Amino acid sequence: MLVPLLVAGFFSGAIPQAGETAPDFTAKDSEGNVYTLSEMVKKGPVILAFFPKAFTGGCTRELKAYRDRYADVEKAQGQVLAISMDDAETLTRFKAELKAPFPFIPDPEGKVVSAYDVKMPLLSVPKRYTFVVGEGLKILKVESGNDAINPHGAIVACPLRKPAGADAKTPDSGTK
Q1: How far apart, in whole angstroms, are the C-alpha atoms of residue 88 and residue 29?
Q2: Helix (H), strand (E) at residue 26
Q3: How many whole angstroms separate alpha carbon 116 and alpha carbon 20?
Q4: Considering 26, 96, 129, 160, which has the largest number of Cβ atoms within 10 A of its Cβ?
């Protein structure tokens, strides 16, 4: 009984959990745009969708589901970053095939994947994990495996709030 727990603990390491602080990162998407997590969360919650491999069955289902529910993500003022260890060229093709409206982050060296400790042992692919990150980089929800294919849990974990600066009064906001 103890051996499986030790083995599971060895392989699950330090995967960030709900309530903890998410590792911050800056990364380029497949189109060359730069994203910094700590800046993104100022605009609303960020769903980090780590997926193993482009053009595979589960990953295609997962990212199509995010595409199909993207209006719900936007209503919650959320954002999605789809992250894998595929190269930029592969993710550019995958994103185009899916007609996905959110960025795909290539992480071929596994820097972001390692920061979240979601790399599969002995393989250069991440495990399927979803992290919902809110203000102050606080992790609001973590899902893994088959639970991470359906975006419903991640979407409902996005807190409804006013955008940053919505309460601030500006001398000339340009609206009448």
Answers
A1: 8
A2: strand 26-28
A3: 12
A4: 129
| Burial class, 19, CB count within 10 angstroms (exposed 0-12 / middle 13-18 / buried 19+) | exposed
Alpha-carbon distance 60 to 94, whole Å?
9
Q: What is the pLDDT of residue 159?
A: 81
Cβ partners under 8 Å of residue 136, min gap 6: 21, 41
Q: What is the pTM of this model?
A: 0.83
In sequence order, the β-bridge partners of residue 27 are 35
Q: pLDDT > 70: what percent of the chain?
A: 83
CA distances from 138 to 13, 23, 60, 99 (A): 19, 10, 28, 30
Residues 106-130: tens digit of each pLDDT: 999 999 999 999 998 888 899 999 9
Looking at 59, 76, 132, 139, which residue is catalytic?
59
Q: Which of the 8 DSSP states describes residue 149?
A: T
- Whether 158 is catalytic is no
Regions in the chain scoring below 50 on pLDDT: 1-12, 163-176
